Amino acid sequence: MNIILLGPPGAGKGTQGVLLAERLGIPKIATGDLLRDAVKHGTPLGLKAKAVMESGALVSDDIIMGIVGEELAKPASSRGVIFDGVVRTIPQAEGVARLLDGMGRKMDLVLFFDVTDQEVLSRIEKRRTIEGRADDDPTAVQRRLTAYREQTAPVLDWYEARGGVTRIPAVGSVEAIADRVRKAVGR
Prior knowledge:
single chain, 187 residues, alpha/beta, Rossmann fold, 5-stranded parallel beta sheet, 8 helices, 59% helix, globular
């Protein structure tokens, strides 16, 4: 089963993605994790990504799709994956669709974690206090929300036009949200 998780930063995709991956026994693919791993292991795509990341620029769609393709080709991914933050633009959505199609697979479910900006800001402030993440300062969060609205939010419409999106009210306890995800997935 191939499932994509969409929603703004701080919507709970990472937390719910880990829980869902464990429950289904399939890997969770997160772009940032994949990029860091490819760089760490010095893969050809990792070396390209490292040069781009060190320059401060955004990693191109072709590098991201190459890394995602490598991950999808692994035996552990043969039964499906949870895509967490992998699809951030329409070209990436199209790229993932092509990769899956080339493997005789499809996107089985698109889950959108629906949450207000106010809730997102509150969660990220709490996370910043607990974890001390430098990328969670208010200015960076506003930049990420703006980038999400401009680049990633249109992906939601793209998936809606191709089979639908299941909206998950992403408020409440981690357990309550996990229960909504479980019902949406059917297991």
